[in-house]
Amino acid sequence: MSAALPLGEGIVLDPFMGSGSTIAAAKVLGYEGIGIERREEYFKMSVEAIPKLAGLNPQDDPIEQLNLFDS
Q1: Looking at the whole model, is its pTM more than 0.85?
Q2: Cα(67)–Cα(6) distance, integer angstroms
Q3: Which of 2, 22, 29, 51 is deepest in the core (most CB within 10 A)?
Q4: How many structural domains comprise the chain?
């Protein structure tokens, strides 16, 4: 994203947001993001996923951070 948005300024538009990973990455890098998703099930998934993904530390193990295998 930094190659397309100079000096950390701008807004990322994702017209096919899906689970929201692009919007989460934008938040991590300090950009604003706008996501559009027409499928309700993906939109609901992104509402839950974006805050979790944006809170990840890229240097740490994502599986441990998300507690994917906790029962």
Answers
A1: no
A2: 35
A3: 22
A4: 1
Q: Please indicate, yes or no, if residue 62 is contained in any of the structural domains.
A: yes
Q: Which helix (H) or strand (E) holds 42?
A: helix 40-54
Q: Are 7 and 36 within 8 A, CB to CB? A: no
* 10 burial via Cβ count (<10 Å: 0-12, 13-18, 19+): middle
Residues 27, 1 contacting (CB under 8 angstroms) = no
Q: What is the pLDDT of residues 30-70, one digit of tens each?
A: 889 999 999 999 999 999 999 888 887 766 665 665 665 55
